[in-house]
Amino acid sequence: MGDLKLVKDFTVGEGFFGRYEKLVRDVVLPYQEKALNDQIEGAEKSHCIENFRMAAKKLKTGSCEGEFYGMVFQDSDVAKWLEGAAYSLAQNPDEELERRCDEIIELIGEAQHEDGYLNTYFTVKEPDKRWTNLHEAHELYCAGHMIEAAVAYAECTGKKRLLEIMCAMADHIYRHFIEEGAEGYPGHPEIELALLRLYRCTGDERYQELARHFIDVRGVDPDFYKKEVEKNPWRVWGNNVGDKIYNQNYAPVRKQDKAVGHAVRAVYLYTGMADAAAQTKDTELAAACKTLWNNITQHRMYVTGAIGSAYEGEAFTKDDHLPNDTAYAETCAAIGLIFFSNKMLYLERDGKYADVMERALYNCVLAGMQLDGTKFFYVNPLEALPGISGEAQTHRHALPVRPKWFACACCPPNVARLLGSLAEYAWHVEEETLFSNLFVAGTLDLTARFGGKVELHTDYPYDGKLEYRFMPEKGKTGMKMTLAVRMPAWSEKTDICRNGKAADCEIKNGYAYIQGTYTADDVITVMFDMTAKRVYTSSRVSANTGKAALQCGPLIYCAEGVDNENDVLSLSLKRDGEITVSDFLPDELFGIRKLFAQGYRETAGEELYSFDRQEIKPCQITFVPYYTWANRGLNQMRVWIPERD
Amino acid sequence: MGDLKLVKDFTVGEGFFGRYEKLVRDVVLPYQEKALNDQIEGAEKSHCIENFRMAAKKLKTGSCEGEFYGMVFQDSDVAKWLEGAAYSLAQNPDEELERRCDEIIELIGEAQHEDGYLNTYFTVKEPDKRWTNLHEAHELYCAGHMIEAAVAYAECTGKKRLLEIMCAMADHIYRHFIEEGAEGYPGHPEIELALLRLYRCTGDERYQELARHFIDVRGVDPDFYKKEVEKNPWRVWGNNVGDKIYNQNYAPVRKQDKAVGHAVRAVYLYTGMADAAAQTKDTELAAACKTLWNNITQHRMYVTGAIGSAYEGEAFTKDDHLPNDTAYAETCAAIGLIFFSNKMLYLERDGKYADVMERALYNCVLAGMQLDGTKFFYVNPLEALPGISGEAQTHRHALPVRPKWFACACCPPNVARLLGSLAEYAWHVEEETLFSNLFVAGTLDLTARFGGKVELHTDYPYDGKLEYRFMPEKGKTGMKMTLAVRMPAWSEKTDICRNGKAADCEIKNGYAYIQGTYTADDVITVMFDMTAKRVYTSSRVSANTGKAALQCGPLIYCAEGVDNENDVLSLSLKRDGEITVSDFLPDELFGIRKLFAQGYRETAGEELYSFDRQEIKPCQITFVPYYTWANRGLNQMRVWIPERD
């Protein structure tokens, strides 16, 4: 599972994600770097870097001027940015950027205590309160993100300084929780998955042990947070220590069977659990992960791969409660679902996990960012109602257009680091098999493993054709391997050819396995069925009864007012009507295909209630990919549209 | 507008509301009396009466033991109960009940300060803070309710003691706000409508002046609450003084054009405004009332007559935002909408106002009480989803079954006082015309006015036939008058007969005016069209697109799981299918008619999302009147059902 190696060994090509790769490099990372340094006029102050400077000064001189500013977990923004920058450096060497990263890393080192402890909030503001509020103070969460950054930076640049810093912090945590036996588990899981990455990177088994420790003790004493606050009554927000469902400690994790509480925390926890289960062959833990993954994907996930039905607590609610206009559907949570599903693939090689990764990536996650990379959504509703969305007291979170930056800036850098490390999700290598999970055009260097490179040429997701080509290294004629291509559940008919003829392959659990010794002349061509189709929700879900959504390839579509006479609420889809896929439109929304569906429009009556059905006229409804919504100003948007005959 | 006289002069007959009248007398009032006296085991403590005892003792002796308990507006529960008891006494003389009321009234008198001031919260708990927190402390609200009780008790029993007490309090308020020029207006309107009742009862014009004062100054200084809290920073809940929309002071009331903020406060305010406009022929104020009434009924009212779309603030949200499962739809707010609409009828004799009274009464208000009178809903959603309703963090308020009693017990006594004074809404007398707005069976004594009595015989709302009979007083042969019967908008065809032949009448603005000199042999018969029909919502309302509800007479119907295989979410109505009205079923739900509609049921698939439409089978859907829902245990309920061909 040398997943990060894949990021380094993969060169993103010219396709769909090529544009995103450049956007992250040229726009998103520089913008976020400025934000971290408080150089963006009119945006909320970050103060991230300044917090590190203050902590460093305090450690050096015994005091510092000014005050810690920002969230208790402000450090993590630097970590996520560094991680994103590391991935970008792996693709695009940039001496200047690397120098600035190194400077920040030096500063981080200066903010580290001699005993390895690192957290600017505590160093600057609460030096006596270390480890006394695991419930809210997010020390372990910040450590986790910085460990991830350290691993990424080491793998991508070869430079070990941040890794040393974070190993010292991990050692500190190990001493505190293992050797000294401190009780407790993190309020915001993240450290678990990070320590497992650190273990894979360093080989130090204590980090795996520590990750398993946090997983194993969670919920064993479900009153831990209550006892903690009795001992140390200081609070960050005053969150409810007794809400065991919300705190995800209602049972030991192996007995948990519902995805509950803060959605990002949940999927970060489950990612660590799945990774630990795969690494240590823990079948009981693996079974719990499957139960939780099934609970999410069968009862608590939007069709866009978004999770978290409620603003209240940024959280899961109850089975089959998926309101469209008030969804929380946080970008970070969809990213976390990708992390979790990716780890599930290592536990069980089944295409359904990659199907969910794809669903979340192409729909919720991409919608989280304006197409030009300068604005972001935290919340990704499936229906926007100007005048209500972002305005009614029930919809303050559900903005109908993306704002610039946030006081709590977790989502933007999370998008950057995910897009920068797509190879880790797109490709898996297990023994003699190369798994192609997500179809990102580019070149994967497998010289060490299979003696050559594999290229994927495709205009996916706007074209259903994948072409895998092979470049054996000099002196070799072929690459002996099995290429395993995911067969997405949405493609009803998939053709797989080898050099123009039907390929000999085995289809198993959502993958087509094609064995061979591939030469430079070989081409594996895969053709998916890109017919536009209707999606239906189980009638268990009240919000979508009587409605359908449209999907084409992996893309969920939506109807926006701007394409539909500024009124999508009066539209209905004709049940068996035709759906036409447009030509590729390179100049619209950075290149899309639209869908045109037969439907009806009700003529709007003035009366709120009436006994007479409104007049209904046939019309054509225009749909655009959901991820492109709200890029053309304020207007109505709807994914689920009523159907009629 | 001697409206309360109607309550005294009307004797409820055996019909639909006869049962409710007895229920209020035999169950609701005794139960609530016990609750006020903390005699109900397992229910939340009220402490209402005890607060008065403590205040009385403190005034007498200078101190009292114990502490004030309950909401800052706890006094109002006593007031509402007394008002309900007064109406009951008008119908059913009951010496014991009257004696107990008199005792409470004596106690109230003992809790009054020499200067007329009356409020147990301030007397017991905050003696130095009178009139320093109009925004939150609800002194004027409590005074308003007790004034209403005083007027009712005087009109219904002839006893003036409570009236004297409350005149002294009103005089105190007059001195403070008019003579001494204290600034401000109530955070929770109610005093306005109460003072206008007091003016009508006593003829003292200062009370009308004071009511108009509170109406006129509202929103003239929209920063009043801000200034108030700067001067006196104590808070009850810490409500936002700067939220002018929520505080209903975003403009002087004559310039307000959207119904906003706390829904009960809003309609109480508008009731006072409409009453003042009618009393003083204030055309500008009348115009504002019409604008606000139209805004509510065309953009912010549920089909059940419920208002208030959000739990957050118990408030209105934005135009055309009417979610079904998360509605707040407070019983008290629907009652307030009846108050408001009733006053609008005096401003403009148009049946649409009475149509809305009827909609709110037969649907939302009646649903607020268990059919046996022992349990109550605050919140009346239009969809209940067991497992989500009352459980998800977004649905904690939207309980799927009625609880016993509430810490904030505003709705139960409000239902009691409304049901006890229905005559005030059912009948209006203006010059030579008797308006029959709501069709409550019984006998109205109009001897003083028209020289006799009018009887209404009907099994409405389960039968569309009304029979008006006349009983001239001894020595008179006929009653010269115009009978004006409302023609409900839902009745497409209405027949009006006089002694079996088509009556000569003028139809105008929703009323049929039938002139005559009525003798004991005359019968006016009105037959409404009781065909069950579909209701549609404007497509402006996202929640109901593609859906229909069923209505029969004034009753909105709903489908409950208990009648429909425990699953109403998979049901759809056949667009032009037949709807059958059952025979009257005296033994079901205290007597109802059911509706049986042709529809379809989707077979439930396991998958959350699928590309294949579920299998759909024809079925019959059973509907019961909305007001009877949740009387047969926990189950799904839905008013709006998707339609298909």
What's a quick, concise take on this entry?
The first copy, chain A, is of the alpha+beta class and 645 residues long. Chain A has three domains: 5-427, Glycosyltransferase (Alpha/alpha barrel); 431-527, Immunoglobulin-like (Sandwich), CATH 2.60.40; 533-644, no CATH class.
Radius of gyration of chain A: 25 Å
User: The CATH topology of the largest domain in chain A, please?
Assistant: Glycosyltransferase
Annotation, overall tally of beta strands of chain A: 23
DSSP strand (E) fraction of chain A? Answer: 15-25%
Overall outline of chain A = globular
Mean pLDDT across all residues of chain A, rounded?
95
Poorly predicted regions of chain A: none
Helix content of chain A: 25-40%
The major sheet of chain A is characterized as: 7 strands, antiparallel
CATH architecture of the largest domain in chain A: Alpha/alpha barrel
Oligomer: homodimer
Helix count of chain A, per DSSP? 18
Largest interface: A-B, 65 and 64 residues
CATH class of the largest domain in chain A: Mainly Alpha
Helix-strand makeup class of chain A = alpha+beta
The tally of domains of chain A stands at: 3
Major beta sheet, strand line-up of chain A: 1-5-6-7-13-9-10
Measured distance between first and last alpha carbons of chain A: 51 Å
